[in-house]
Amino acid sequence: MEGQCKATVFDRFHNYGCSRKAGYGPGGEYCKQHAREYLMEHGPVIKTMYKVYTDIWEGPEIIEVGIVDETDKLFYIKNTDQRYVDYSQKIIKDNTDKERLYETKEEALKAFMEGVIKDLESIERDLKKHKERFDWAIAKKEEINKNKEGGK
Ligand SMILES: [Zn+2]
């Protein structure tokens, strides 16, 4: 199908029709990029996967996502977990260490548990460091107080 992509592009002040060539998406009415965006918003989910976040500060969590398109490196996903709709509807992420996609809930759960354990270990290390610092400060305080009394 010939013609121009039917998507509307917005910049700060204007909106205008996309000028790229159509040929992708439903009815071949979109350019490659907009076909993908259309898929991410309206597309049928071709499979469900599980995304595991193991960020130490936000804590590990599992989010169910719908894959709408898949290439060698990228998974184009649509969030099927209602709680996170705003957050990841537009997410395009490669399958990196920090945010992994798993085929099954069992794999995701395993990774999730590993994430929890890693967090625990990291927290334990921090606690130990703080404890050492705390002990040092207490000892120092006592030493200073002793010197004060001794100096009278
Ligand atoms: Zn377009």
Which features characterize this protein?
elongated; binds zinc ion; 7 strands; five-stranded antiparallel sheet; 152 residues; alpha+beta; 3 helices; 2 domains; single chain; two-stranded antiparallel ribbon
Task: Summarize the structure in words.
The protein folds into two domains: 1-42, no CATH class; 44-136, no CATH class. Helix content is 40%, strand content 24%. The protein contains three helices and seven strands, in the order E-E-H-E-E-E-H-E-E-H. A hairpin with a 4-residue loop joins strand 1 and strand 2 (15-17). It is elongated, with a radius of gyration of 26 Å. It starts with 7 loop residues before the first strand and ends with a helix. Bound molecules: zinc ion. Zinc ion (ZN) is lined by residues 5, 7, 18, 20, 30-31, 33-34.
